[in-house]
Amino acid sequence: MYRLAWASDIHLNFCSAEVVERFCEEIAAQEPDGLVITGDIAESDSVGPFLYYLERMLRMDIYFVLGNHDFYYGSIAEVHRALADVRTSEHLRATYLTQSPTVQLTPSTILIGDDGFGDARLGDPWGSRSQLADWNYIEELKNLRRPARIARLQQLGDAAAERLLPKLVEACRSPAQHIVLATHVPPFAEAARYRNLPTEDYALPWYTCDAVGHVLRDVMALHEHKHMTVLCGHTHGKHYTRILPNLIVHTAGARYKMPDCAGVLELA
Asked: CATH number of the domain that 179 lies in?
């Protein structure tokens, strides 16, 4: 049995040292073998140091993907370089699932992951008046007019789907029966909820990654003997939804300055 704790949208940069310490104590109290974090750990200049701190405090396997906030005040490329530097200089061992192959947690369970990104495909991206901080604070999205912004977001979604597909194929070819997927952005509209209400069309483009959803639905429909559990966040709204008989999605609830454990998976 492998006990995998899960947390999402913990935004540790908004928290005092005491709150971060209490978060670590809460995770440790669950007595897990590992922790998976589905994005929004901090911001571009602090995500690496916070991961290193969690690793030192928890002394367990840590797996993670990044969320949109993790790129704030920087760029996607810069954050990737910074994580590489932390790995080298401080010997960070936490596994960045977006850049990692499949992880065999137990003989019957494989863990995979990718950041994902709101890819402007669902809802009404052309009529939406939503203004996301992403478009001011992430270098790749700055100063873009709507057509260029939508095109860039779709590229990010497509890239996530392309990275995930070979991992999914490998997982489905393995003897393992259970695939756990960690991602930040809900891959389906049904999973993107806040305060237990469906996300409106004006926000849906920015809170779902349809490209990833298509890959997951297509692959799992072809492998009915496999079971997938998707763990995601981003909307801060706790929700559970079944997309296919063998494909379920858990979306984590979250509150700023109050990071907590979203759950523990007991994996045979």
From this structure: 3.60.21.10
